[in-house]
Amino acid sequence: YTAYSVALAYVVKLVGPVLVGRQAYVQFAFLMKVMVALSVILGAISAIFILPNLTELAGYYSQQACEFANTRECLGIYAGLFSSGLGKYDSTIFDTFRAFGFTVFATCIFSVAKAGLYACQDFRFMAKASTLVFLVIFLPVLLVARFFFVSATALYVASVLPSWILTLVFLWRLQRNCQKMMQRSSLPGRHEVSMGQI
């Protein structure tokens, strides 16, 4: 279902700029409401199908690890992936996949929200928000995960947490941009403006 959300994002990338360029702000806001709602539905369906199949998915994505299990140097890594009880903070790949459903859910929404901001030409905000999330969220959380939790699950969550947060930030900004456009469309003598100026 994530592929369908990518298709939704392409629709937004193709249709969104045309609507904004024609100052059809009401239609653009409607398009974004529909596309975000569809991406939420696709994300929820994806997460619902993933959660009951965690063991199978973890096994599928970890097949390559089995190839390395026959070498002495890789046995520790293999044991860390598939067995528990080896350390205070250990977690298996099966534990890590519990967070995977949330990541897929956020990814479906993120691609559509990002495409909506592309249509608004809000590149400066996207760059600032991404840099801020990298510095304030990703780096500290990664260091905490690496030195205090020492588990694959903690490292995975640290690596995907920025995209979860950016999903919320981009949705907020997209909603704000749509509100500003709607206000401009109701003004007499409206003129063309990019969202970067708002």
Question: Outline of this structure?
Answer:
This protein has 198 residues and is an all-alpha fold. 77% of the residues lie in helices and 0% in strands. The chain crosses the membrane at residues 30-51, 99-120, 132-149, 155-174.
Which residues sit in consecutive blocks of at least 5 with pLDDT less than 50? Answer: none
Task: Please state the structural category.
Answer: mainly alpha
Mean of residue pLDDT?
84
Total domains: 1
Q: Could you estimate the helical fraction of the residues in percent?
A: over 70%
> Per the principal axes of the C-alpha atoms, what is the gross shape?
elongated
Give Rg in angstroms. 21 Å
The total strand number stands at 0
Discrete helix count: 9
Strand content: under 5%
Most strands sheet:
none
Would you write up a description of this structure?
By secondary structure, the protein is an all-alpha fold. The chain has one domain. It has nine helices and no strands. The protein has helices spanning 2-21, 25-50, 54-61, 63-67, 75-82, 93-96, 100-119, 123-149, 152-185. Helix 2 runs antiparallel to helix 7 (100-119). 30% of the residues are buried. The mean pLDDT is 84.
